[in-house]
Amino acid sequence: MILLLLLVVNALFDVVTCISQHPVLIVVSYDAFRYNYFEKNGSLYMDKLRKEGTYADYMLNVFPTKTFPNHHSIATGLYPESHGVVGNSFYDPKLKRVIKMSEEMWRFRDDIIPIWTLNEIRGAGRYSGSMMWPGAKYLYNNKNITYIQDWDIDADWYKRVDTIISWIKNPTKPANLVMLYFEEPDTHGHVYGPESDTVFNLLKRLDNITRYIDDQLLANDLADYVNVIHLSDHGMSSVSPPNFINITQFLKSNTYEIADTSPCLHIIPDSDFEQETYKNLRQASREHGNFSVYWKKDLPSKWHFKNNRRAPPIFVLADPGYAFQDLAEAAQTYALKYHINITPESQFGVHGYDNEDTDMHPFFMARGPKIKKQHKVSPFHTVDLYNLFCDILEIKPVANNGSSANIKAILVSQAERNHFTTLGIAVVAVIVSLMLVSCGAAITLLVIKRQQNITTIAALNKRFPQTFNTNAGIEAQHLLESEEA
């Protein structure tokens, strides 16, 4: 009976011992999930879920509102001018070439430490995993993390979830931080536009995968131990072909390079043509409108973009609802690949505009043992997320551009956590006490029953001494036990 008690008590704590001894956090990114997509009613489960935990109406992301800069700001707590990922592509004057997706894009300085690397640096059995998070497969602080799945657009969404659950439940190196990335609704939002039926159907698919994440946490007894943050990097706006602007017509051929894509283009003129290039673009902007032109030094400080060698010498930004010639070229590619007809009414998705443009705003919601329930917070900056991650993981952050003050309202206070911990211990103590009492009572009944049997057998021996033997005694005992049963 004591062995049974130990087994039951051990089962009560089994879920705790099969995962990390540290707080566990999953960060899920849905690329280009605009903050107000919930109003489309395609993601009803997500909408219900966000109101059960903590959520903000939107977050204030970083400029440019592109995928790579924003994912790296989420991961590092730094503005693009600090972490160096100033676009989805850009010119690096030190390397003297345009940088696209590569290790050189992400490793701008050795002291930039993303949250997944910081988690492992803090040691004591902390392990991180990245399921296709942009930039996470590269070395930081001369270190790779424990679990890395490289980008694979064909990777099944459900298998992605199953894989991260296996990382968290690994018996020898359980991950306590996992970054999970989904490329939608961005990929098809560019092709069909954010107001399309295609995007609406993708919202339903993302709703289903979010439900699946919850189902797997429940099925693996992890729901009460894992904190989950769902977010996006930016929103999306619609642009139609009549609003495509070909700025190359205002430039002298073979005198410049262009990096990044609409609506923000990095113009890198040959050294002898800087003034001429800027003058021509400025004149075109005044005459034709719908886009702005900046010298690097004149870029708005509020963007936290210009103080980096990778910021371009000339920067061109289309007004919301407009895009440049690169989108016209991309539209032709979409037409061939997805078998669509391009008309003046066609809608294409674009992001990258000023981060104060509401269409660029991403969403945020969170739940878990460290997150307040049924709670709404004011909008905050995505660079604040780094400190939120650190607070949940109970690790000390490195220097960053975020504020801890902006995210404190998301977390359950230490006093509340102490209360819940004490309550949990009290509940377990009561259960153990009841089990001990039950065991004691059961043992007492067994002793009494055995004593009754012994007394009965003794009486039979006294009454029938000439016929009672060992076998008869055993048979009599069995008879008595069967009658009692």
Features:
alpha/beta, globular, 485 residues, Alkaline Phosphatase, subunit A, Gyrase A, domain 2, 18 strands, disordered N terminus
Task: Give a description of the structure.
The chain is globular. It starts with a helix and ends with a helix. The chain contains 15 helices and 18 strands. The strands form 5 sheets. It has an 8-stranded mixed sheet, sandwiched between helices. Strands 11-12-14-13 form a 4-stranded antiparallel sheet, covered by helices on one side. It has a two-stranded antiparallel ribbon with strand order 3-4. It is an alpha/beta fold and 485 residues long. Strand 11 and strand 12 form a beta hairpin. Helix content is 40%, strand content 15%. It folds into 3 domains: 2-236 and 354-412, Alkaline Phosphatase, subunit A (3-Layer(aba) Sandwich); 242-350, Gyrase A, domain 2 (2-Layer Sandwich), CATH 3.30.1360.180; 423-484. Helix 1 packs antiparallel against helix 14 (414-463) and helix 14 (414-463) crosses helix 15. The longest helix is centred in the C-terminal third of the chain and has 50 residues, at 414-463.
Quick overview:
The chain is of the alpha/beta class and 485 residues long.
Number of helices: 15
Q: Report how far apart the termini are.
A: 21 Å
Helical residue percent band: 40-55%
Strand order of the largest sheet: 6-5-7-1-8-17-2-18
**What is the global morphology?**
globular
Query: Number of folding domains?
Result: 3
> What number is the mean pLDDT?
87
Task: Using the coordinates above, name the CATH class of the largest domain.
Answer: Alpha Beta
Q: Which structural category do the helix and sheet elements fall into?
A: alpha/beta
How many strand units? 18
Uncertain spans, ≥5 residues at pLDDT below 50? 1-17, 419-432, 441-450, 452-485
Percentage of residues in DSSP E strands: 5-15%
